[in-house]
Amino acid sequence: MPRQVHLFERPTRFVAGTVGQPGDRTFYLQASDDSGRTVSVALEKTQVQVLADRMNELLDEVAGRASTIIPAEAEPDDLEPLTAPVDEEFRVAAMGLAWDGSAEAVVVEAVAAGDEPIDEEAILSDSEDGPDALRVTITPMAARAFVARARRVVAAGRPPCPLCSLPLDPAGHVCPRQNGYRR
Prior knowledge:
The longest helix is centred in the N-terminal third of the chain and has 21 residues, at 45-65. Helix 1 runs antiparallel to helix 2. By secondary structure, the chain is an alpha/beta fold. Helix content is 20%, strand content 28%. The chain is built from two helices and seven strands; from the N terminus they run E-E-E-E-H-E-E-E-H. Strands 1-7-6-5-4-3-2 form a seven-stranded mixed β-sheet, sandwiched between helices.
């Protein structure tokens, strides 16, 4: 079966968000366009954090060497919840991130998990074979806004334990730094 690539060129919305309560949240990337089409893919909290960090680094690098004007920072311009219903197209196994110099845009690709390990060459390629993917092309300003929102979403979880940095449950947790005593 040929791969399905969900393409979004300059979507009206590209955000990271969650469904559920802290400690039991599912993280999503969600892209929407003018026609009302919305695609949601599930991923891990650490994947959202890494994507935000790498996107920020990419923009800083491009700003330092290209003639493109890239904003230094942006506030999240979209703090709305994910567009309902959130139907997971697939779970992300790998991601790719690139700068398209001709379009002066950031390209993000999230690739589905499959039965076999992901071939790195399948990410950001137009091959007919390979896992399903979500490919989004966004402006530098939209990328900075994505980074700001993604960092907020990640930080909105459970507070860390001051001793071991593991997340605290509302009832506390068994802290390894306290030899198993509740904190």
